[in-house]
Amino acid sequence: MAHLRLLLSHSRCHPHPHRLLPLFRFCSSNSSTSPPPPIKPVSYAPKPQPPPAEAPSSEAPTDSLPRRFQQPPQPQPQNPPRQFTRQEMRFANEPGPAIAPVSYPSRAAAPLPEDRPADGAGAKEEDLRGEGERIEKEAQWGRMPVFGLQVEEETVPHPTLIPVVKRPQKVAIDLVDALREIKASANEKKRNFTETVEAHVMLGVDPRRGDQMVRGAITLPHGTGKTVRVAVFAEGPAAEEARAAGADVVGGDELIEEIRKGGGKLSFDKCIATPMYMPRLSKVARILGPRGLMPNPKLGSVTNDVSGAVKAAKSGRVDFKIDKTAIVHVGLGKVNFSEESLRENIGAFVNALLLAKPVGLKKTSKYVGYVKKFTLSSTMGPGFSVTIPSLSAAADNYTKVQVN
C-alpha cells in the first residue's frame, strides 16, 4: 500500500509515463521480496518560551530574575493637567511643588590654642628660658676685654635718605663777560701750554638728513694762533706756485705713495689739491678722510688758485662740520689774544654759521630754532653759555667791517 502511494505521488509530480517504469519495477520487485522498512517518527525538543508577565509581588523581587526575563519599567500614567477656563484662571492659585529642606551634618571645628591641652607647656618655657640665657652669655663674652683691651661696640647708623642735589643750571651771559671768565680761569690754572678758546654750538638740525647738513669754512681775521702745516698735491707750475706761497709739503704721486706706506704718520695739518689729482687721492682716502684732511671743493681746498688757498690756510682758515649729535666744535683763537680779537673771530664764525644754514630747515628765524646753545670754553677750563643777542651783535659788527 505504501508503495502505491509513493508511486501515485510520484506520478502527480512527473506526468510523463515512461519515467515511472523504473520506479514501478523497483516497487514491484521489493514488494514481492520483503515488506518496506518502518518509518520512525522524528521529534524535536520544543523551543523554550518566556514565562508570562506577572505583576511584581513583594515576596519575589524582580532583581532575582535573570536580566533577559526582566521587563523594562512601564511609565506610570500621570494625571493630566487641570484645564482652567478664562474666568477660573483669574482666581487660580495652586501651590507649587513642595521642596524638602536639606540638612548637612555639622563639621567639627578645630580646637583653639586656649582649648588645647597644656601638655609639655612647662618644658617649652624652660627651653625658651635656656635659649635666652645662652644668648645673653654670648653677648657678655663678646664684650669681655681681649688682652686687657676693652672691645668697643660697633654702632651702625640707621639708613637715611640722601637728597639728590641737582647742579644749578648756568645762566647765559654776555659774550664779553664770557671771554673775561675764560681768561680768568686760564690764569688761575697755569698750564704748560697756551690753551685754545673753543666754541661748541648745538644746532636744531637733523644730521641724518642730507638736506640739513651744516659745514663750511671761514678765515678768521686774527688767525687761530697756531702754526699750520700745509701740504699741496700738484705738479708743474702749480707746484712752483705753492712753494712760492709758503706750502710746507708739495708733491704728486710720490707724496701719495709716501702717505700710503707711512703707516698713518702725517707731517701736515691741511691738504690742498688741484682738480686733476682728486681721482688719484682715492688711494689714501681711508687715511685722510677720518682725520678731516681730505680736500673738498665745498671747503675751497680743491682749486686751481693754489697760492691763494695756501695763504688762506696759513692765515687761519677754519673748517667746521656738525657731528652725529648736531654739535659744531671749532677753535677760534688762543687765550692770550685780546678780548677784541677774540670777539671779532667769534663774530666771523657766527656769520659763517648763518651762511651755512640749510635751506630745508623751516619754521625758524635767523637764530631761534637754528642755534639752540652757544658755549665758550678753554681747552681744559669750564664752559660758559653765551646769549644769542650778544652773538648777533658780534656778527653784525664783523659784517660792517667787511663791507667798509
TrEMBL record:
Location of region: Disordered: 30-132
InterPro entries: Ribosom_uL1_bac-type, Ribosomal_uL1-like, Ribosomal_uL1/biogenesis, Ribosomal_uL1_3-a/b-sand, Ribosomal_uL1_CS
GO cellular component: a single term: large ribosomal subunit
Domain of life: Eukaryota
Biased composition (Low complexity): 55-71
Record carries keyword Ribonucleoprotein: yes
One example GO MF annotation: rRNA binding
Keywords: Ribonucleoprotein, Ribosomal protein, RNA-binding, rRNA-binding
GO biological process: translation
Feature: compositional bias, Basic and acidic residues: 113-132
HAMAP family: Ribosomal_uL1_B (MF_01318_B)
NCBIfam families documented for this protein: rplA_bact
PANTHER family assigned to the protein according to its UniProt record, in alphabetical order: 54S RIBOSOMAL PROTEIN L1, MITOCHONDRIAL, RIBOSOMAL PROTEIN L1P_L10E FAMILY
Protein family according to the UniProt entry: Belongs to the universal ribosomal protein uL1 family.
Name recorded for this polypeptide: Large ribosomal subunit protein uL1c
